């Protein structure tokens, strides 16, 4: 397939939900201007503040890590080494916990809780600071570890290093990280809904309200389009460095080590995770004494495992197509700035095309994979893959010039250098995607995954059982990420 | 085991274990999905807690399948609020033969969509407390209902006796409510307040400003906060207390009895005009009103039955008698009330 065809295919795929509704709806009506402007203002402020603070605290959190690599926590290491290996997992934990448990924890710890903008920003920072720490740490290892060694040898001071080297070299990458978290917070639905209070509304909440309450699909679609277009217009293009690089696990991170930094994400994780402890024993007892729920839980566990694996493989395949389609200035800008239309709009678009399925079938699996791909591929790409892709393109170009075939380049250069990051981010994205309950629920119409089952149990007075199943979900996610990380470690 | 994964063979075995074996186990344990084109297959759209394995749906399915010699397939459409939206979007291509879960505050708006088949009047002994609305009875048949009030734990707080008590200092930051934009019971609360005109709106504004209640996007989150003791009062179904009496063996959960009428939630079933198996759908609606089906709905959905002779001799009969306010809403009401909610500081 030619690069051009790949680009067109990917773009059409990502905008597919919009296309379905444009053809489906008889007319397009625009939402109220004043209401829309106010909601966009609130969303922008919330997202901007959240991402700035996430990066700020994430910078210190990154210094608390020995490495941003997620390694196998079950190897022979003991003591301090074991703790260092477990740290990235601890940093990532809040991203895996269902939002409702985080909210319950926060409300228990902070009374009265500052609902509204402050509460939403606080929760966003809490949930993402660890992840930001890992991404910044990986950035440092990929782009600055060699420079840092050289600077250290030359006797450069810390201040000078940060002012003259760290920020100038990493500026565009930090900007893209800012945009990544901005995108997450901008399109966040659950946190603003749970903590926004009664008159704080974000664009996603307004879209949901238009659909759920009023059935105004046309206005919801216009809001989604505005949301996506807005980001495309305001993102400037930044030039990224062209050096090929890969993550190095160094024992000494000059200028970038401060154990105090790890306190922030550890505290955040403890805060988030504290909501998962109360009621666990009662939950286990209830689960074991209810054969219906136990059987359903087992099915949901297997369903989630299958979905995570399939999603990981699907994401890997998609990203390889994207890599094949690069480099292209506008395509890259599109991938970095496009905001998908949101879970409800995406789910309904695939429902209209694919029809009603009940449970897992070939059709429903296919629809779920496609729908979740639309929602999560741009997100995963912005997480850090774009950087890696860019640096590998230079190697690819050189190999072409030297006469290597595409297959040779893929086997000897692209895949070996790409697989570590690709497998990790794809597995991470697959875990997040499998925690979605809007898309999977609408397209399968049954509790086929643990996330759906947890949501339903909470809605049926069974909060303790839901807590227990959340632990299984976390463990499953950790296992799948570790497994694919393990596979990527195998020498090619 | 770690070394095993360094070899290609080990990876293959690992992939097989992680992927193929669960797939075989999962799909071999899954019911075969019968084709939706089966002429004796009834497709029912309903919300998650109805269709869950512990919900009323599977039991209703089992009982009705024995009577009709047919196959019943419950389709989980997620939330009740999305039921009508989904039908509108699916249009004539919808697979639904029956829809269960439209509440009384959206039923008038749903009726205006002209999506529904006319259902013959039912000759049943309706529950003495249930007020029927004849304007919508042609298309919508109730199958359960419950009063809504504040649930509290005895010994933890002195319950309110009238809505003005909610403004007492003891309830500051302790009331759990739902956002009416995203929750049916939340909208019921808003409608209850706004139906009293300016007085109700003023009261609600004061409640939000001074008492700072916890506003959750869904009933499940609001109730979760209450169960976790982040709140001491939650606006919920009176029958929520019965769940705790029976399942948790906890009698401390009680519904607050107010001196004034409390709102109710009535859930309706209906048959879309585009039904493929309309006769079977009508049989199912009739079946829903039988004592056996009503008992299942009562004990699995934790709501009150709509017919007489079911609630007696059960713990549901121990609930206090409430003065009831049968609110209804038009599209205009809904928009106005929601606008007012958003403007409240």
Keywords summarizing the entry:
heterodimer; A: 492 residues; mainly alpha; 20 helices; B: 345 residues; alpha/beta; 10-stranded mixed sheet; 12 helices; 10 strands; globular
Oligomer: heterodimer
Output the structural class of chain B: alpha/beta
What's the number of extended β-strand segments of chain A? 0
What distance lies between the first and last C-alpha atoms of chain B, to the nearest angstrom? 60 Å
**Uncertain stretches of chain B:** 29-36
Uncertain runs of chain A: 237-246
Helix amount of chain B: 25-40%
CA-atom Rg of chain A in angstroms: 22 Å
**Helix fraction bin of chain A:** over 70%
Radius of gyration of chain B: 23 Å
The total count of helices of chain A amounts to 20
Q: Greatest contact pair? A: A-B, 72 and 77 residues
List the secondary-structure elements of chain B in sequence, H or E: HEHHEHEHEEHHEHEHEEHHEH
How is the main sheet of chain A built?
Answer: none
What fraction strand of chain A?
A: under 5%
The secondary-structure element order of chain A is HHHHHHHHHHHHHHHHHHHH
User: What is the count of helical runs of chain B?
Assistant: 12
Distance between the termini of chain A: 25 Å
What does this structure look like?
The complex is a heterodimer of chains A (492) and B (345). By secondary structure, chain A is an all-alpha fold. Chain A contains 20 helices and no strands. Chain A has helices at residues 3-14, 16-24, 33-63, 79-96, 99-109, 117-153, 158-186, 190-195, 203-214, 217-234, 263-273, 280-288, 291-325, 329-337, 343-354, 362-401, 406-434, 438-444, 450-458, 463-489. Residues 237-246 of chain A have low confidence and may be disordered. In chain B, strands 1, 2, 3, 4, 5, 6, 7, 8, 9 and 10 form a 10-stranded mixed β-sheet that branches. Chain B is 38% helix and 17% strand. The chains are: A mainly alpha (492), B alpha/beta (345). At the A-B interface, helix 5, helix 8, helix 9, helix 13 and helix 15 of A face helix 1, helix 2, strand 2, helix 4 and strand 6 of B.
């Amino acid at each position: 397939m030619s690069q051009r065809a790949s680009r067109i295919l990917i773009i059409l795929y990502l905008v597919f939900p919009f296309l379905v509704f444009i053809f489906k709806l008889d007319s397009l009506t625009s939402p109220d201007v004043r209401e829309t402007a106010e909601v966009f203002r609130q969303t922008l402020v919330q997202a901007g503040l959240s991402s700035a603070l996430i990066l700020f605290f994430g910078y210190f959190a990154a210094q608390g890590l020995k490495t941003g690599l997620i390694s196998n926590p079950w190897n022979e290491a003991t003591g301090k080494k074991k703790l260092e290996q477990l740290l990235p997992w601890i940093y990532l934990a809040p991203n895996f916990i269902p939002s409702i448990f985080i909210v319950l924890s926060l409300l228990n710890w902070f009374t009265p809780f500052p609902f509204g903008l402050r509460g939403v920003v606080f929760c966003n920072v809490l949930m993402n600071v660890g992840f930001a720490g890992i991404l910044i740490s990986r950035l440092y290892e990929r782009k600055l570890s060699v420079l840092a060694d050289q600077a250290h040898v030359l006797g450069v001071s810390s201040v000078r290093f940060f002012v003259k080297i760290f920020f100038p070299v990493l500026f565009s990458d930090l900007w893209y990280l800012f945009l990544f978290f901005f995108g997450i917070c901008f399109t966040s639905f659950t946190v603003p809904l749970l903590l926004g209070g009664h008159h704080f509304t974000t664009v996603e909440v307004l879209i949901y309200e238009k659909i759920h309450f009023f059935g105004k699909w046309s206005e919801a679609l216009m809001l989604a389009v505005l949301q996506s277009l807005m980001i495309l217009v305001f993102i400037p293009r930044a030039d990224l460095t062209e050096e090929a690089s890969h993550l190095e696990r160094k024992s000494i991170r000059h200028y970038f080590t401060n154990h105090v930094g790890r306190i922030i994400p550890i505290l955040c994780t403890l805060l988030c995770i504290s909501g998962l402890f109360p009621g666990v024993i009662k939950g286990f007892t209830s689960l074991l004494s209810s054969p219906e729920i136990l059987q359903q839980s087992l099915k949901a566990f297997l369903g989630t495992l299958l979905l995570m694996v399939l999603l990981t493989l699907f994401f890997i395949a998609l990203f390889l197509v994207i890599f094949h389609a690069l480099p292209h200035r506008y395509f890259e800008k599109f991938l970095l700035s496009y905001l998908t239309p949101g879970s409800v709009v995406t789910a309904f678009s695939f429902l209209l095309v694919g029809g009603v399925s009940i449970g897992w079938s070939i059709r429903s699996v296919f629809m779920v994979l496609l729908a979740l791909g639309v929602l999560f591929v741009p997100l995963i790409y912005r997480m850090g893959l774009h950087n890696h892709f860019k640096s590998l393109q230079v190697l690819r170009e050189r190999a072409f010039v030297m006469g290597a075939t595409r297959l040779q380049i893929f086997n000897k250069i692209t895949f070996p250098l790409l697989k570590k990051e690709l497998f990790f981010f794809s597995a991470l994205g697959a875990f997040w995607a499998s925690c979605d309950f809007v898309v999977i629920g609408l397209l399968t119409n049954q509790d086929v995954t643990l996330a759906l089952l947890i949501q339903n149990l909470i809605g049926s007075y069974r909060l303790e059982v839901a807590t227990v199943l959340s632990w299984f979900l976390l463990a499953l996610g950790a296992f799948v990420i570790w497994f694919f990380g393990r596979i990527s470690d195998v020498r090619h | 085991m770690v070394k095993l994964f360094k070899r290609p063979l080990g990876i293959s075995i690992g992939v097989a274990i992680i992927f193929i074996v669960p797939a075989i186990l999962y799909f071999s344990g899954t019911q075969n999905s019968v084709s939706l084109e089966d002429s004796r297959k009834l497709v029912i759209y309903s919300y998650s807690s109805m269709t869950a394995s512990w919900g009323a749906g599977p039991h209703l399915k089992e009982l009705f399948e024995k009577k009709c010699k047919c196959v019943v397939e419950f389709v989980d459409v997620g939330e009740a609020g999305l039921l009508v939206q989904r039908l509108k979007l699916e249009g004539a291509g919808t697979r639904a033969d029956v829809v269960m879960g439209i509440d009384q505050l959206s039923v008038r708006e749903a009726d205006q969509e002209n999506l529904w088949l006319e259902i013959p009047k039912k000759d049943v002994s309706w529950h003495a407390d249930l007020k029927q609305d004849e304007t919508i009875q042609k298309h919508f048949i109730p199958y359960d209902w419950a009063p809504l009030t504040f649930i509290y734990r005895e010994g933890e707080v002195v319950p309110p006796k009238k809505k003005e008590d909610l403004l007492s200092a003891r309830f500051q930051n302790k009331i759990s409510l739902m956002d009416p934009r995203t929750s049916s019971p939340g909208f019921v609360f808003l409608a209850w307040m706004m139906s009293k005109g300016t007085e109700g709106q003023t009261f609600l504004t004061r409640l939000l400003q001074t008492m700072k209640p916890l506003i959750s996007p869904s009933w499940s989150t609001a109730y979760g906060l209450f169960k976790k003791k982040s709140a001491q009062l939650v606006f919920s179904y009176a029958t929520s207390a019965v769940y705790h009496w029976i399942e948790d063996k906890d009698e401390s959960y009680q519904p607050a009895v107010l001196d004034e009428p409390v709102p109710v939630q009535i859930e309706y079933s209906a048959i879309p005009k585009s039904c493929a198996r309309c006769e079977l759908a009508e049989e199912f609606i009739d079946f829903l009103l039988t004592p056996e089906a009503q008992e299942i709905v009562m004990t699995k959905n934790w709501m009150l039955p709509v017919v007489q002779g079911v609630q007696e001799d059960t713990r549901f009969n121990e609930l206090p008698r409430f003065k009831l306010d049968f609110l209804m809403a038009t599209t205009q009401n809904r928009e106005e009330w929601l606008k007012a909610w958003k403007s409240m500081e």
